[in-house]
Design goal:
257 residues; alpha+beta; Glutaredoxin; 6-stranded mixed beta sheet; 4-stranded antiparallel beta sheet; 3 helices
Amino acid sequence: MNKKWLPYALVLISVLLIYTLDTFNSRVPEQEKEASTSIPKAVITIDGQEVLYKSGAFSWVEKGIGPVVDQDEPPILFHDLLPVNVKPFSKLKITLPEKAGIETVSVYRSRGDLELGPLPLETIFDDTYTFNNVAGLSTVIIEAGRQDQVYHYTFPIILEEVISYQSQLAEEKGYLAVLELYLPDAQQQNWALEQVNNKYVHKAHSMQVNNVEEARQQFPDLTIEALPYYAIFNHERLLYEANNREDFFKLLKVAAP
């Protein structure tokens, strides 16, 4: 190369080098930002079976339509997914990549339709959540957070009714529930939890039926021989039953989950 062109070549190389470095530096923050805001891919299973879900930044649309997640464009309603059939006390597990740096994981399961407003999320540990025994269609929303960023994963479930008195069971382990069935002409006192002298009881249900046959049709898994009928349940099964109110309250004083 002619020596007179050497200074020009050096200047050109310097300009190209500065431009390359400047372009690289300007793109790195964008890439870091994109990586930091991308939604970590989760593996969600219920009793070992993988679940399909929608993920994104959770937001509300107009009342009556429900929540959406913004991973898809346009946003797709979570209930476009088919509900997952779940048995009582099934275990949900969520696995997130370690590089995502997730610090907290919380779960919310609706009862019936979702309502506008803040979600009463329940923080879980070991990334595992146990469903209760309340049957019906509901929505599961999982919130995973790190620093100032929050991600949501959501899907619908149908918790199966395994036994006819499932709705009468205690909803959590370590508690009791009580049931009374009575005839229309019986003197019935409406139970309130404060009237039940047992610290374990968190649900009391008093129900009128016209006759024994109607009671049996409603609860075919209970042995109902006469009315009134009283029963005590834990979260899994029937513990005690009686037809005499005084006998029932004697049992209730000593009953434990």
